[in-house]
Write a structure and sequence with these properties.
The chain has 3 domains: about 120 residues, NAD(P)-binding Rossmann-like Domain (Rossmann fold), CATH 3.40.50; about 210 residues, 2-Layer Sandwich (Dihydrodipicolinate Reductase, domain 2), CATH 3.30.360; about 110 residues, no CATH class. The strands form 3 sheets. A 9-stranded mixed β-sheet has the order 16-15-14-13-7-12-11-10-17, with helices on one face. It is an alpha/beta fold. The longest helix has about 35 residues. The protein starts with 10 loop residues before the first strand and ends with a helix. Helix 15 packs antiparallel against helix 18. The protein is globular.
Amino acid sequence: MDLPFGTDRKIRLGIWGLGRGLNFIHSARALNIEVVAGCDITPMMRQNFASIAPDAYVTDNEDNFLAQDFDAVLIATFFRDHARHTIKALEAGKHVMCEVTSFFTPAEGVAVVEAVEKSGKVYNLLENYPFSRENLFLRQLWQEGLFGDFMYAEYDYVHECRALSYAWNVNGGVPVEPGWTVHNWRSLLNYHYYNTHSLGPVMAITGTRPVSVTAPPCDVTLDGFLEGVRKGTACPSLIKMDNGGVVRNLMGSTTGDFHTSGRIWGTRASADKMGPLKIRIGGSGFGMQLNVNPEWPEMKELANQAGHGGGDFWELYYFARQILTGQPAPWDIYSAADVTLTGIMAAISCQNNGEPTPIPDFRKPDVRDQFRHDHRVVWPTDVDTQNLFPEGHDTAITGHFSSVMTAFYPCQGMSGLPLVREAFDGIRLYPHLADANGRLQVISAVNKLLRDLPSLQQNVAKAQRIADAYPNTIPGKTIRRLLDHNDAIPRILDADATRATLQNWLASL
């Protein structure tokens, strides 16, 4: 195989955070990157890492980890720790690529930017969605002038992942242990902070940066999120870009996921990637709309094997290229600060009922001085995710909380409480379905619900015990809302009637 950067020099990499961080090991091997160390506070994650990289050093001690002999660190630790860990890694003499987002407060942002500048090391944000095949192709066309000036875009990262409040995002969702605790940060996440997967592609494609944001609150929420702590709802924002164009950015949890979808308009052409990529040309609303099949710019075999539509490969590629050749990568510390600050300011705007909020440019030292002591957060920092129940709680009851909530809203589809809706709503729509595939899906859901009813009943009983024993706790209130308002619950409790209804429907086909 040809050397990707014209050199056989190796980058020795340590991975800090061995859940998400493990996704990069396969691609690293093809990019002059040797994974030599790992660090994680969770035994399960360390064991997984050791099985994949048996010759690498692994520890739960961050100081011992950073003392090892390697060149760069990939930071995939808990959301709120990114700034502290980035600064610590830079001070240890490491290049840094950090998972989204770069920091948690404007004051942390100032500290991270200045630490990167002082270190002279490479810093890249690990934002992968701009590097899907479609988005890389659009970026190339934009740079060539096909689209003209940026006017407007609508990009989404809508991800209903209630289970990840209660489970690790590994092996289809492993409940957090002990069972009376919840995930360190996903259980508290304000979706505006997690904006990079949708705003990031627009910034990368068009070369524009955000300058102000307004984010009206949406007060209609889904159940299953920690009651009074986290809102499972739509989190839209309108973002003004530095060229005068506007982005409608959408994150959140709704009843319809769109992970990589978007539409974008320039003055000469527009693109629609809500499904297969389409480009409308001619500078007119009535121009030809052409179906397009984009290709990778290079190394397509490796990109096709990587996660997130190939984006995980290109993140590593640009990072390694910058270290080995000096060619700048797309996500330096300043663009990382732009996208991170947009999420922070959107959350603040939402808290202020949609008030337009400027986005500071941390390239400018005088602007940084204005935010050096700005520690504002829109996040329930007073909630202890490890102590949601009172001291001395009965672990025989509370120990089922994370597993019950994961079972109610699993990471994988067609299971848990949504399965009840899928089966009964599918029966309702069945006479109107347009194809055999849809009809087979409904029949499969009905049959699965018949099999799953006993386990659903058991989990409802466990949930009821928690709510009855600890009604005034966050878990108790979370479960009570679910039991009182989710119309799947009566069908589960009256399992005999539900079973008869489903069996009679199947017999009528």
